[in-house]
Amino acid sequence: MFEEKISLSKYSSFKIGGPARYFLEAKNVEEIVMAMNKWRRLLMPKILILGGGTNILFSDEGFNGLVIKIQNSKIKIQNDNSKFKIIKAEAGAPLSKLVEMTADIGLSGLEWAAGLPGTLGGAICGNAGAFGGEIKNVVKEIISLDISKSPPQLIKRGNKECDFDYRSSVFNNKKSEIVIEAILIFKKGEKKFIREIIEKNINYRQERHPLEYPSLGSTFKNFPAAQINQSGEVQPLKAAHLISEAGLKGVSCGGAMISPKHPNFIVNVLNASASDVKNLIELSKNKVYNQFKIKLEEEICVI
């Protein structure tokens, strides 16, 4: 059932990472349950759930345990009324597919995710967001699988029970739970207007993000409602601004570089190692703290 010594760099948008000791692509709950039964017999405690690999920095040494890549990706429209439409989507569904599908049928709620990589499950775990939108705003219900139980148990949660916060959810803390599927609710809108917003957001990313290099997107979290502008409005304090002001644009270590285009991106410009990236993460944290007495917190997951 398990493959062995599979390079994790192939499953990372960063193109970095050593081998997983054991690896499994799971297409449904039944395959996950079968994997957990076998896993318990191996008596190895380490397990990692992988979605799109767009937010994880894998170690150069790899992962000495089992990596389960979630591959369920069905999307189904459940109902239709005058104002809203409900969609049932599995955790492995690509965000890009959901954005396109909802836009095609005139549903508003995911325009902010246009151009984002990754899967629905990963977006839910980290409450992904951009341009003022967040995944929590379209979540009605989540089904997860608690693999700490024997046998594993399905758990249903409503939106409020998911404890969504800035780039976090209950699933960040409950490492033994795997997001399986979600019920999403959308408002009906005008297709042309939805498409205009999507194109605007994609163009913004293409102009301001270093998409020409492998990366994990934003390395550090921003600070919501952290500063007041000249008009007296409360605005978020951007990690990119702090890193830029600390003079770190374009600084490199080995094959990794702090992007001059967007300094909250660390990019793989020349076969970077995880150690190269970790060195730039620590340099950024130290420089920003020494200059501004502000502690940067990683948005990415470092394994």
Would you write up a description of this structure?
This protein has 303 residues and is of the alpha+beta class. Helix content is 26%, strand content 32%. It is globular, with a radius of gyration of 20 Å. The mean pLDDT is 93. Residues 15-189 form the FAD-binding PCMH-type domain. It catalyses: UDP-N-acetyl-alpha-D-muramate + NADP(+) = UDP-N-acetyl-3-O-(1-carboxyvinyl)-alpha-D-glucosamine + NADPH + H(+).
Brief digest:
With 303 residues, the protein is of the alpha+beta class. 26% of the residues lie in helices and 32% in strands.
| Rg | 20 Å
Spans of at least 5 consecutive residues whose pLDDT stays below 50 are none
CATH T-level topology of the largest domain = Uridine Diphospho-n-acetylenolpyruvylglucosamine Reductase, domain 3
CATH class of the largest domain: Alpha Beta
Proportion of strand residues: 25-35%
Tell me roughly what share of residues is in helical segments: 25-40%
What is the number of helical segments per DSSP (H or I, 4+ residues)? 7
Overall shape: globular
Order of helices and strands: EEHEEEEEHEHEEEEHEHEEEHEEEHE
Topology, number of strands: 20
